[in-house]
Amino acid sequence: MVLYVPAAFSVLTRNRDFRRLFAAELVVFGADWFVMVPLLVLLPELTGSGAWGALVLAADTGIVALLLPYTGTVADRVDRRKILVIANFAAFVSVLLLFAVRSAATAPLALVAIGAIAVSKAFYSPAASAALPNVVDPSDLAAANTISGSAWGTMTVVGASLGGVVSSVFSPYVCFAVTAVFLLAGAVLTTLIRRPLQAPRGDAEGGQSLRAMFEALRYIAARPRLRALVTVKSAVGLGNGVLTVFPLIAAAHGAGAIGAGLLFALRGLGALIGPLVMRPVLNRPSWLLPGLALSMGLYGVGYLGVAFAPWFPLVLALVFVAHFAGGTNWVLSNFALQGEVPDALRGRIFAVDMMLATLAIAISQLGASLFIDRVDSRIILATCALITLTYAIGWRFATRRLTPVAAAPETSDRPATAE
After folding, report:
1. C-beta of residue 284 within 8 angstroms of C-beta of residue 142
2. Tally of CA atoms within 13 A in the half-sphere of 175 that contains its CB
3. What share of the chain is helix, strand, coil (3-state, %, to 5)?
4. What is the 8-class DSSP label of residue 244?
5. In this predicted model, what pLDDT tens digit does every residue of 248-295 receive, in sequence order?
6. Following CA atoms 114, 120, 122, 128 in sequence, which dihedral angle do they give, to the nearest 10 degrees?
7. Backbone angles phi, psi at 171, to 5 degrees
8. Which CATH architecture has domain 5-198+218-399?
9. What is the mean pLDDT of the chain?
């Protein structure tokens, strides 16, 4: 880690446009968790049921999954800068609705607000992922992916931990107000990026969204290695029902809102540190597929441990280990996809990839919501962990004969210059 982290972060000092894109992502991800953690604690207090928190999480991911086939096409055909700015502003308006969530009767408004924010994220995420290779030099792309992958983890740590503390000391509504300000700041940062966020498109690339999406699906279907890469995140996704019981785990250990914030924060810290430590794998194509399988398996083992851990500090440590693996899985697969897919299809391919991952998350969280008030939370944890482990073993068996993933990604027609 000592050898690789400084080299990775040097791209931030040399490339002003990448700094701005990264800062905007930090703001967006921080705002996301600064809302979610206080809301997951507030809803059980208002309604007396853990199911509402699970439904909010499922709505957040499920809506994104349903929209991604369309929004990925939009990311390939519309100015990505405009997409990012408009998505931030739409999320800002949606957060304001959370101020009306004051009782059990108004709890459904939380689903409406989070659903609207999810629509914004569905447009934001594929556009941001597809734009990244256009703001850095090809030689900096591995480092930029490492840093960009750390954005979610960094701001999950900051947003979740501070969200839990601020919610306990003040109120969830203070968190909602701060989030609204963050989202406006993210829009401003994106407007300051000077370089175009996609390669020039020819007139022949117009076409209908549905036809464009089928083109991307045919591209995936014809390439076994690409099929493997767009299904790899589903293993961790199918285990994400564990998140629905975080507030219950914290309550069972007497840790309350601060404990729930710590669980989400350790989740983010693991996702942050994992890609930094495992960055050398990005430069070794033969390690990528085995590394992806190992990361899936470690996530499952970590949450099996959480299911039976008797002490809260041990629970925190195991959550960190699980998401160290999960964050590594996400960044490794993103980097490999960027190496496999040309710019003109990248938004749509990332949309399919994220759709499968978020759909798996939504299914897992909806399944957990059906049982969260009926069975012991340890059963939910163990079941999700075993699903991930089983998927990891099956995925590795199915991909064992594939050739290594290419290490040199294809970039836009216009090279990015360091600043």
Report:
1. no
2. 30
3. 80, 0, 20
4. G
5. 888 888 887 788 888 888 887 887 788 777 767 766 767 778 888 888
6. -130
7. -170, 160
8. Up-down Bundle (1.20)
9. 80
